[in-house]
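ARCHIVE CARD
Drawer: 12
Card no.: 0347
Subject: one protein chain, sequence and derived structure
Cross-reference: see card 0346
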Amino acid sequence: MTAQIEKELSSNGVLRLTLNNPQRRNALSEAMIGELHQAITDASISSDVKVVVLSGNGPAFSAGHDLKEITAARNNDDKGRAFFTSLMSQCAAMMTAIVNSPKPVIAEIDGIATAAGCQLVASCDLAYASDTSRFATPGVNIGLFCSTPMVALSRNVSSKHAMEMLLTGDMLSAADAERMGLINRVTESASLKALTQEVADKIAAKSSLTLAIGKEAFYHQQEMNLKEAYAYASEVMVSNMLTEDGEEGISAFVEKRSPVWRNQ
């Protein structure tokens, strides 16, 4: 069976994971979810990986769950309940692994990203797209509200924008996705990979320890009220200052030289 995920690691630690089932529009089948989850897990614990870039082969980044796979499961004795429950659980675990990974994850979208594919974009830390890319949570059009994509979407864009996407199922242009905050920036298709690589390289040059501390703190403090968030972030800042990289970074700035990270 052809691998669902292609992997390519650059010399400076940028790992490119490419969804590789263009015939199925990179649908998040059970197999695709499993391979992507494993790839993210492996990257999270690898000292060689600094940043992860997630892209897709073919005309789609990802069209969401594999509806043929879902339809086939309806023939089971329980009409698919056990499979549907397992699939949603596996998908949620994979999306959560992206957020919980200490490595920054960047989505590179050149095509459509719909339903769980849009959820995947929203789950990544950063997202860059070509000007021909399109985004949607169209489940409502087929009698299936995009409830799980809603979780990631509503944590990235305003409530009104999220509800408009979820209630109408309309396709969103890349320009509108940028305006709403679903993606960071739009560029021409021919320039997309270079833009993503530039950002990834810039991040990869930072202290991996500092990035891990910051990413964890960013998502954790979002769940707190203002007073709790400041107390938590202050303690994180103190701990960060006491790391070797925290000391080295400040010393290098004061001494007007480039820092030498030890990631500790």
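Annotation on reverse: Residues 81-100 form the longest helix (20 residues). The longest strand covers residues 14-19.
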